[in-house]
């Protein structure tokens, strides 16, 4: 199990002791758990128990020194939020927008982008009261997952609904919610990688120094997070270690055709355009004023004293990607390989790409050593900047962009 981060909230209920078992099970299965408790909760279960299980301080006070922004930061930190047990008092406060403690303040900072589970626990009459049922229905309509309650003998001696669902069943709901969240957050991504080859004859070509190393590193990171990748790569480019669909290209025209077909026939959420596309392709070749017909020859005679190779400019593929794309809302991350001495001198050129791209990654020729690129600058349309010292750090930045963090 991946080390998901769980924000585990406990409100005042005699069933709070059951939360200790569930927290222990989560920790044993590799989850990182941060507990939040109301003051009334601590009448039923002690801080020492919760801190011993999680190795983290129990948070209770939204006005504690140094913790004033917890209601914002914790919501960003968590992969899933759960309130178990959830008392009638807390449920009704949440549904009515009250924020008089850390748990209810946290709820108002929730932006509905990750699972939020509530496991009610209360007396049957409290559970079935119209105000509680109305609050539960309102929370459901907002997208909160309200777990069922068990029926049985309650702590007060009554028999009926409102009993906290057994912790093992709550655990199953947590796993199910995280699995659904992971599936829904997966993106379909096209990565172009490596160099084009512009043919001179059947044995000679013009190419560049791109190896696909950076692209493969990014692909591996994105695949590891469950994203679906199509990797459109140059011949002999480095291939990702992780499993993905591989499509090879050779020349500019080959890349252009395959790229446009993929864009027209697939719904991509992101395109990461790393391919080092040749700015020029061979137009014609002359020897001693005579044009060589390459269709009639496999290999130009090495005995010829001199050749003139005429090149013609290729299209800028980056300018056409969004126009041709089936998904008109896709986001494009483009790359600018610069011969400037530093990033400051490269930014003006890179910013021209924002007519098409959402993000531009700048890398400098001077920072390339032994075919490995070091130092990257990621910029967006609002001139925000993020630096990466290597492809691994760059992959982390791009992953955060894709995940919307």
UniProtKB/TrEMBL annotation:
The active site is at residue 156. GO terms for cellular component: phosphopantothenoylcysteine decarboxylase complex. Residues 1-188 are annotated as: Phosphopantothenoylcysteine decarboxylase. Binds 1 FMN per subunit. Its cofactor is FMN; Mg(2+). Residues 186-402 form the DNA/pantothenate metabolism flavoprotein C-terminal domain. InterPro entries: CoaB-like_sf (IPR035929), CoaBC (IPR005252), DNA/pantothenate-metab_flavo_C (IPR007085), Flavin_trans-like (IPR036551), Flavoprotein (IPR003382). SUPFAM superfamilies: CoaB-like (SSF102645), Homo-oligomeric flavin-containing Cys decarboxylases, HFCD (SSF52507). CTP binds at residues 279, 299, 335. GO terms for biological process: coenzyme A biosynthetic process; pantothenate catabolic process. Residues 189-405 are annotated as: Phosphopantothenate--cysteine ligase. One of its GO terms (molecular function) is FMN binding. Keywords: Decarboxylase, Flavoprotein, FMN, Ligase, Lyase, Magnesium, Metal-binding, Multifunctional enzyme. Its EC number is 4.1.1.36, 6.3.2.5. In the C-terminal section; belongs to the PPC synthetase family. PANTHER family: HOMO-OLIGOMERIC FLAVIN CONTAINING CYS DECARBOXYLASE FAMILY, PHOSPHOPANTOTHENOYLCYSTEINE DECARBOXYLASE. Catalyzes two sequential steps in the biosynthesis of coenzyme A. In the first step cysteine is conjugated to 4'-phosphopantothenate to form 4-phosphopantothenoylcysteine. In the second step the latter compound is decarboxylated to form 4'-phosphopantotheine. This is Coenzyme A biosynthesis bifunctional protein CoaBC. The gene is dfp.
